[in-house]
Design brief:
The complex is a heterodimer of chains A (85) and B (619).
Chain A: E1 2-7, H1 16-27, E2 32-37, E3 40-43, H2 47-53, E4 60-66, H3 70-84
Antiparallel strand pairs in A: 1-4, 2-3, 2-4
Chain B: H1 5-15, E1 22-27, E2 31-36, H2 44-48, E3 55-59, E4 62-66, H3 72-83, H4 90-99, H5 103-115, H6 119-138, H7 146-160, H8 162-173, H9 178-188, E5 207-210, E6 213-216, H10 225-244, H11 247-288, H12 292-308, H13 314-323, H14 331-352, H15 356-370, H16 375-385, H17 387-406, H18 427-448, H19 467-474, E7 477-481, E8 484-487, E9 492-496, H20 503-506, E10 512-518, E11 522-524, E12 529-534, E13 540-544, E14 550-555, E15 567-569, E16 576-577, E17 582-586, H21 588-593, E18 600-604, E19 614-615
Helix pairs in contact in B: 1-3, 5-8, 5-16, 6-7, 6-15, 8-9, 8-10, 9-10, 9-11, 10-11, 11-12, 12-14, 12-17, 14-15, 14-16, 14-17, 14-18, 15-16, 16-17, 17-18
The chains are: A alpha+beta (85), B alpha+beta (619).
Chain lengths: 85, 619
């Protein structure tokens, strides 16, 4: 399992559009990516759950990736977060 | 475990500085809204931890505590009792009163809710029927033409099959499956049953022997109340079954058991109870009609018998009167007085109402009533507001007593009101009768009935929409997939998602669906489901529906930048929503002023998971 933490810098946080892009990114891989903030967590492929977490600017989220292509998946998500969030 | 409303209210009061610190208290669908005198006395941390408070924020000088649908009103009631604030403000009292209306008022409201959506159908039929029957009486040769036969068929369709229309509407109001509701309605007028309208001409009524019950094989043509009760029962059974039947077999077990048990109970218990009531009413009416006091009583009770759907039996009385050599139908003036009084009351509402929708319903309904078809006026207007109904009863009583004293009568039966002139023996006295009953009802309704202000949530500047349009608009399907249908959440022009003015939405990254160029500012829930997310910036709501359909309703493009200004949500995460329920309002002017497209984005975010996703305007 791969795990990393990222602090959101985008002023609107993980909202509809960025969340949708994140879902699109995560769906390219076989691995299961989970986004965790505090006691809430969501699969990176579930748009509703992601939005329901209400991640805002300054929130630190933990990303856990598990699966046969977890290396690539984690790297892609991390890259996506850095570029977009 | 259920929330302890009392404890919740007490804790809230203690954390906002006690009752002396509260200026005003009200609630909306999900929140307790408080105006606090000194905000410094609020213990925010403690408030958030109160059991039952799901969240809190401050907005427009209000402290809003999110408590949840169906719970907030109970907490509010306790809140009032804890603080002794029930007399504090008018708006508070109003809101509290609405939530605690007596049963009979809620029943009347349910009746109105069932009838309002179907009014177009019965108003059209009522007017046409009145005109065609009148023409047939004036020109007897017309009654033998093909045209008469054809027009008569078109005109009476809605009434001949009224139970079906009522059943579908009732199923929607009571939260059941509308198609199952339709089945109940159809079963009640099935062609293998005798037609209730013609049952008087049959010597022996055939029956079925089911267990200990003997079921008369008679349909429920013209009935309303038994149908509504049956559908209410159906919805009750259906909802219970949905809850308890395992999902795997739910699809066939629930509808099967629901329909079977409902129809069985309808024909064995509900129906016979009404048949008994009918025969009592008929026996009573036959006694009453022969003296002026009795006629007066009948004039008052007549509209009630229309409500119960018992009025179609009166033909039996009328036919009996005419069958006697030289007999005169003295029942008809009573019915005419009662009907014309409903016309007067309904017309008063139509002329006095300022609400365009009320006016639009009341005026044509009153015309139909003047022609003797009172269902639209009674169910759509007078009964709903109730006071006009009372006015109609008074007018009907006076008219009926007058009719009985003057001894006027008709030489045929079947028509009342204006067409009644065709059959009445003394037109002058009949004119006075109509003027008396209609006039008194009109004046009384004018005095008694006051148009209630639109039910606005206190301290809420946003206009509250007309409820009827919600049901209509959410009834239009814009997205359909293998798991179900999604209604149109906002009034406006529907465009495919590919035309939404934003690349992320238009490319389908967030799923397939539609955009709506809004013509209104209210978002309605497009299906029954659960709110899975509400954006902090209030402009987007996610709802999870049947078959795990995940729907995103996102008002405007880039409107997240408005940080909630101009948006108001009426639901919170975890709330259950019903199709057609108001969930959000938005300020179109503010969206425009901020320079954003106001397109409402409606996307099935997990459309990849379904087959045959279709979308578009009214598919």
């Amino acid at each position: 399992m791969k795990e990393f933490t990222y602090t959101i810098t985008d002023p609107v946080g993980i909202h509809a559009r960025p969340a949708g892009l994140l879902v699109k990114e995560a769906k390219q891989f076989n691995s299961t990516a989970t986004i965790i903030k505090g006691d809430k967590s969501a699969k990176a492929t579930s748009l509703m759950k992601l939005m329901g977490m209400g991640v805002k600017q300054g929130d630190a989220v933990t990303v856990q990736v598990e699966g046969d292509d977890e290396e690539a998946c984690a790297a892609a998500i991390e890259k996506f977060l850095k570029e977009n969030m | 475990m259920a929330l302890n409303y009392r404890k919740c209210a007490e804790e809230i009061v203690s954390h906002i500085g006690g009752r002396d610190n509260i200026a005003q208290a009200a609630h909306c669908a999900t929140r307790l809204r408080l105006v606090i005198k000194d905000n410094g006395k609020i213990d925010r941390a403690a408030l958030e931890n109160v059991d039952g408070v799901k969240g809190m924020f401050e907005n427009n000088g209000q402290l809003q505590l999110i408590i949840g649908t169906g719970t907030v009103n109970k907490v509010y009631a306790e809140f009032l009792s804890v603080t002794g604030m029930s007399e504090a403000t008018k708006d508070d009292v109003k809101a509290a009163a609405a939530a605690q209306q007596p049963v009979w008022k809620r029943m009347l409201k349910a009746l109105g809710d069932v009838f309002v959506p179907i009014l177009p159908a019965i108003v059209a039929s009522g007017l046409m029927m009145g005109l065609i029957e009148a023409l047939g009486k004036v020109y007897p040769e017309f009654a033998n033409t093909d045209w008469y036969g054809f027009l008569d068929m078109v005109a009476n369709t809605a009434f001949a099959y009224l139970p079906v229309i009522v059943a579908v509407s009732a199923a929607r109001v009571f939260g059941g499956n509308i198609f199952l509701g339709g089945v109940i309605g159809l079963a009640m007028i099935h062609s293998s049953l005798l037609n209730a309208w013609s049952v008087g001409s049959v010597e022996i009524i055939p029956t079925w022997k089911l267990f200990v019950f003997t079921v008369s094989r008679v349909g429920y043509q013209g009935h309303v109340i038994p149908v509504i009760i049956a559908v209410w029962l159906m919805c009750f059974i259906e909802k219970r079954l949905h809850k308890h039947v395992p999902e795997m077999i739910d699809l066939f077990v629930t509808p099967l058991c629901t329909v079977l048990s409902t129809v069985f109970l309808t024909f064995t218990i509900i129906g016979p109870a009404f048949a008994q009531l009918e025969s009592w009413v008929l026996a009573g009416a036959q006694v009453l009609v022969h003296n002026p006091i009795g006629a007066g009583v009948m004039g008052a009770l007549y509209p009630w018998t229309v409500v119960m759907g018992l009025h179609h039996m009166y033909n039996v009385i009328e036919a009996g009167m005419l069958a006697v050599e030289g007999g005169l139908n003295t029942w008809m003036p009573i019915a005419s007085a009662a009907n014309f009084a409903q016309f007067g009351a309904c017309l008063a509402v139509g002329l006095k109402a300022r609400n365009a929708r009320t006016k639009a319903i009341a005026v044509p309904s009153s015309l139909s009533a003047a022609l003797g078809i009172t269902e639209p006026a009674i169910f759509g207007v007078n009964m709903r507001f109730f006071k006009p109904f009372i006015a109609g009863m008074v007018g009907g009583t006076v008219g009926a007593v007058f009719g009985s004293f003057t001894g006027i009568g008709a030489t045929a039966y079947g028509v009342t009101g204006i067409p009644g002139y065709l059959t009445i023996d003394k037109p002058l006295q009949y004119t006075i009768l109509l003027a008396l009953s209609g006039g008194i009802a009109f004046v009384l309704a004018n005095i008694l009935w006051k148009e209630e202000a639109v039910e606005a949530v206190p301290a809420e500047p946003t206009p509250v929409p007309v409820v009827e349009s919600a049901a209509e608009i959410a009834g239009k399907t814009v997205i359909r997939c293998s798991s179900g249908e999604i209604g149109q959440p906002v009034i406006g022009k529907v465009i495919p998602y590919t035309e939404i003015p934003d690349p992320t939405f238009a490319t389908g990254t967030l799923g397939q669906g539609v955009g709506i160029e809004p013509e209104d500012n209210v978002v309605y829930a497009p299906f029954d489901g659960e709110v899975s997310s509400v954006a902090d910036s209030k402009h987007a709501i996610g709802i999870t529906g049947p078959g795990d359909m995940e729907l995103l309703i996102h008002v405007g493009v880039d409107t997240v930048a408005m940080k909630g200004d101009g948006f108001e949500d009426f639901v919170a995460e975890g709330d259950k929503v019903k199709k057609g329920q108001k969930i959000m309002t938005f300020d179109r002017a503010k969206i425009k002023a901020a320079g954003h497209p106001e397109t409402v984005v409606v996307l099935l975010t997990n459309s990849d998971d379904y087959e045959n996703v279709q979308f578009g305007d009214g598919i």
